[in-house]
Amino acid sequence: MTPLDNLFDEAFENVPLMAILRGFDRERTVEVSRRAWDVGIRLVEVPVQNDAAVEALAAAAAAGAERGEVVGAGTVISVEGVERAAAAGARFTVAPGFCPEVAEASLAAGLPHLPGVATASEVQRAEAFGLTWLKAFPAAELGSSWIRAMHGPFPGARFVATGGMNLANTPEFLAAGAAAVSLGSALSDAGQFARLPELIADLKPTAVQGKQADR
């Protein structure tokens, strides 16, 4: 585990959820970020696949800095992407897969890195690099049983289930051992967002129990 992992440890301590805001403009990104923070979600990820997305990241990062919240860059797949994310004010980076060069660049820039993994080999390589917080992607296709199975050989891995996640399957993945869940399209669905506070209230006892079990 790297010292930078403390960011994820602290952010997910009470609410094991992360918001992924893909494809929104600057104003909408900031608006949804604030709504996520208001219900207790600490981490916001803005995927940066084009210039407009980098601008949205910068706007969200600035809004987060004003209220002490953390915004990171997603879909960071190159060293150049790490540099652009850092310049835009990102506090962490997320990737769809594990690339040692990207992970090294991110950590060197002082940004915790969350790489995507989908096989035992990828988990093993990421852990050998010193990373313990890992993005299980695409989680819905892998299934919650994948999380449970990976904890056998890799008990120290902390998986963030990402991809196809919603309010209905989030409890299932957390019960299977996921340390957190990333919600994307669910946050742009007015009906699901309205039910989010209820889900968070239900998850808090689970999060506390999980912390106690880890000790």
Q: Return the structural class.
A: alpha/beta
- Tally the helices: what do you get? 10
CATH superfamily: Aldolase class I
- Compressed to H and E, one letter per element, the order equals HEHEHEHEHEEHEHHEHEH
What is the gyration radius calculated from CA atoms?
A: 16 Å
Strand order within the widest beta sheet: 3-2-1-9-8-7-6
CATH class: Alpha Beta
- Helicity, in percent? 40-55%
Stretches with pLDDT under 50, minimum 5 residues: 206-215
Indicate the mean pLDDT. Answer: 92
The tally of domains stands at: 1
Distance between the termini: 16 Å
Question: Would you tell me which CATH topology applies?
Answer: TIM Barrel
Please summarize what this structure is:
The protein has 10 helices and 9 strands.
What does this structure look like?
The chain is an alpha/beta fold and 215 residues long. It has one domain (3-204): TIM Barrel (Alpha-Beta Barrel), CATH 3.20.20. Helices cover 49% and strands 15% of the residues. It contains 10 helices and 9 strands. It has helices spanning 6-11, 26-38, 51-67, 79-87, 100-108, 120-128, 139-142, 144-150, 170-175, 190-214, and strands at residues 17-20, 43-47, 70-74, 93-94, 113-114, 116-117, 133-136, 158-161, 180-183. The strands form 2 sheets. The chain has a 7-stranded parallel β-sheet. Helix 2 runs parallel beside helix 3 (51-67). The model is unreliable at 206-215 (pLDDT under 50).
